[in-house]
Amino acid sequence: MRITHAGRAARLAVGAAAAVALLAGCSTSSGADGAAAGRTDVNYALPANATPNWIVPLGIAGKLATHNSAIMRTLWEPLVAYDGSEGEVGRVAKADLADEITFSDDGRTATITLDDRTWSDGEPVTSADVKFWFDLVQANTDVWASYSEGRLPDNVTEVATPDDKTVELTFDKVYNPEWLQASQLTLIVPLPAHAWAKTSDDEQPDPALAETEQGAKGIFDYLVTQSEDLSTYESNPLWQTINGPYSLTGFTDAGQVELTKNDKYDGDDAASITTVNLLPYTSTDAEVNAVRSGAVDYGYIPTTGLDAPEQYEQLDYAIEPWAGWSITYLPYNFNHPVMGPVYSQLYVRQALQHLVDQEQISDVIWKGAALPGYGPVPQNPESDFLSDEQKANPYPFDPEAAAALLADHGWTAGSDGVLECTAPGDGEDECGEGVKDGQKLAITILTQSGSAETDNMFAEIKSTFDQAGVAVTIESAPLNTVLSSIAPCTADQPDCDWELPFFGTAGSWYFGGYPSGERVFGTGAASNFGSYSDEELDTLMHDSTESTDPSVMQEYSKYGAENLPVMWLPNPVYQVSVIKNGLEGTTQDPLASFHPQRWSWAD
Amino acid sequence: MTTAIPATSGTVPPGVAAPVPVRAQRGGFGRFLTRRVLQALVVVLVVSVIVFALLHALPGGPARGVLGQQASAEQIAAFEAANGLDQPVVMQYLSFLGRSLTGDLGESYLLNQSVADAIALRLPKTLLLTGLSLVVAVIIAVPVGVYQAVRRNRAVDYWLSTLAIVAYSTPTFFLGMLLILLLSQTAGLFPAAAPQGNGVLEVLSQPAGLVLPVLTGAVPIVATFSRYMRSSTLDNLGEDYVRTARAKGTGYRDVVLRHVLRNSLTPVVAMLGYYLPVMFGGALVVEQLFNYPGMGLLFWSAAQSSDFPVLLGCVLVISVATVVGSLLADVVQALLDPRTRGAAR
């Protein structure tokens, strides 16, 4: 029988259609129907290119990403929990193991009684588990990522366990109790000594082993080694001894995590959703594709998605920007060999700050996905730490005020329109100490690449600065390159040639429960990249941790807003979330953690 | 009746030495192979030196980028000491070279894995994706190219040529997004994301998830290969042996399928060799778009996060694949067409 071309084409078409139908039939359901009723699972999208890679709640450097910490917190509850999921940042007692926290009259001893709780293997959670954590951390401060000299555990002179449910911590001096509770006690995660106090798989656990430095080092190394073995996360017996609302029941080599409700959980923060799938994405594009196809219940979209929210609302999502407990800024390199003396002049910093139109940038460029920030204390949500002066913005957008400040100090426009110092000296109407005659007001900003909003923000800043006679050169590089280029330095070092680096596309600095800034603005602090040094600010930061006067933080807020250790910029949100309608309890934690145990589907 | 025509029976182009019988060239082929292998080793070595030097020329080093902005000076110093970054660059390179020769590519700064493990985990997935794309592409491109040549300068040839040019010039990310929009989000036929399971077998167990990424990867290859196939077939259709076969009474279809097709495949076979590094290097755009954790993405993430050991490991694998692919292409071409051995010298 002769087969015509048309017949062959028809056969091919039928064959192709059959193949498509067959393959499409193999397509597995991804929970895309969007119907809330009866659902017991949630698909949560992890940040793009962020694959979980740590499990033991003893962080080491480089493993403290927020998604790692959030997963740990669903498995092991901390001694004291702080988050912002209830509208303001504060202690959330139902999510921690402490019952009552009291401070002695002399202010040096904290007594913590524990809730009556058990581990998943039936053993009680005791004060020995708190002591076990201390023993491990004290012997391993060189690798424990949250270590800061003079802070926990250095500032604890004695850990006493008078009974199974009581821990007494004696500190080396009096500290602000609020700071102690929010910044120090929150670091402590009671660990199951009865199961983890060993140095190899075959050994029988012995809590006494941790009491010697060598033993504690051995246990710490063992736990770290086990935590490095991603392939055993769902099978390793160590990670089955938990006290949190979820257990880890699945972990693929691509980084997909399955959390299942812990039936043995006996705390007050029990899970409602049975299964939470944490989905890794290779890029924001891939995640958005998954959102559009309905495979994600709680995900995120780029800020550009705010231009046309209806495209997601039609897909049964609600759009909710997730604001972080953070600040965003450009550090000045005060030790730059040429521009350092210029940046050291407060009037220069005031003039530059007057040229940043934070409201306009937040509304137009970030489309509301960034909020203006005027000082060192995070402004969203508001807190008692925030001063009226910071809230009011001491340096509102005012190019005329900026021009006047510079003109009053001897800066005049050159033939190219760029301001230059024509009155060197340190008199009141002169450029200031160290600023040379003819020095141009020309600055270079190194920004992190990859964000249209960041690019547009600095294009706007450049435009405004240029009009005011401040020449701006913008360079961009990947975030890690920016961070690698900006170590604190001295003027005589060859790598001290950077001026104003930006690494805040998702916020420059995230705080814990207590937003003191000694690690960012303290003289000589590791993350004080620009080497800012101000005795008054140092004193305020010192007092904010060691004084019991509650007004100190507000004074710090005021001083930081007025004295500009950095250039304050709008604070971008952590992410623009899309949440399936019907998924409830998703109040977004400004500390950038997620709490799936509080989620539920509407009936 | 059909007549077998040797693959090398074509006329010798001007300027190329007349072919020498294969038996007489055996010693020459061995020397050719040895020389090409040595060249390949030198290329890999030079690439590793260049990449190592470039990575270490980056300002600041990787520690701050890896540990984050909150890391203390002590932690940065400890990281550098632990990873040998406090040693002179030459010593670091020699150490890297020595370890590499024993198969130890070092430890990733971020992945909690050795580089070898990280590559071993992703390479099979990448090979699956790129291999399937290639197979699909060849299955489509070869008959399309031959068909176009046979029906040259007719409407169907023009249409298919236009289609090939459109496919070739369409950016991969756009094509992928179009396929997702049409076949996933609108028609709901296939998932928008590739399977996320452990290992290749688990990935293969969800074939629907592979359709869109494989298709996205295959389309540009179809466009390229079909053009090569068309022009190669056209060249062969004009050869004397075709006329001879036809004169002997062989049917046109038999001549095309049994003789022309085989000879026309030579440039495509060479192209397959050059495609090898792409297969090993992964398809970054496809991997990003379809959430497929393969080699391309491993390389990209390592570059973004200053994970030097992973970067070096990926470069090593890709450069070895490049020279091996090029070597294989030359060898296969030399075997198929002995005239090229002379040219290779």
Structural class of chain A: alpha+beta
Query: What is the overall number of helices of chain A?
Result: 18
User: Total number of β-strand segments of chain B?
Assistant: 0
Beta-strand content of chain A = 15-25%
Q: Please compute the radius of gyration of chain B using only Cα atoms.
A: 25 Å
Cα separation of the termini of chain A: 63 Å
Low-pLDDT stretches of chain A: 28-34
The two chains with the largest interface, and their residue counts, are: A-B, 58 and 60 residues
Structural class of chain B: mainly alpha
Question: How far is it from the N-terminal to the C-terminal residue of chain B, by CA?
Answer: 40 Å
- Note the main sheet of chain B: none
Give the uncertain stretches of chain B in residue-range form: 1-25
Beta fraction of chain B: under 5%
What general outline of chain B do the C-alpha atoms trace? globular
Q: How would you characterize the largest beta sheet of chain A?
A: 4 strands, mixed
Mean pLDDT of chain A: 91
Oligomer: heterodimer
The helicity of chain B comes to: over 70%
Mean pLDDT of chain B: 82
Number of strands of chain A: 26
Feature tags:
A: 603 residues; alpha+beta; 18 helices; globular; B: mainly alpha; 15 helices; 0% strand
Report on this model:
The complex is a heterodimer of chains A (about 600) and B (about 350). By secondary structure, chain A is α+β, with helices and mostly antiparallel strands. Chain A has 18 helices and 26 strands. In chain A, a hairpin with a 5-residue loop joins strand 16 (about 410-415) and strand 17. In chain A, helix 17 packs antiparallel against helix 18 (about 550-565). The termini of chain A are far apart. The model of chain A is unreliable at about 30-35 (pLDDT under 50). Chain B is mainly alpha-helical and about 350 residues long. In chain B, about 75% of the residues lie in helices and about 0% in strands. The radius of gyration of chain B is 25 Å and the shape is globular. The two termini of chain B are about 40 Å apart. Chains A and B meet through helix 1, strand 10, helix 7 and helix 15 of A and helix 2, helix 3, helix 7, helix 9 and helix 12 of B.
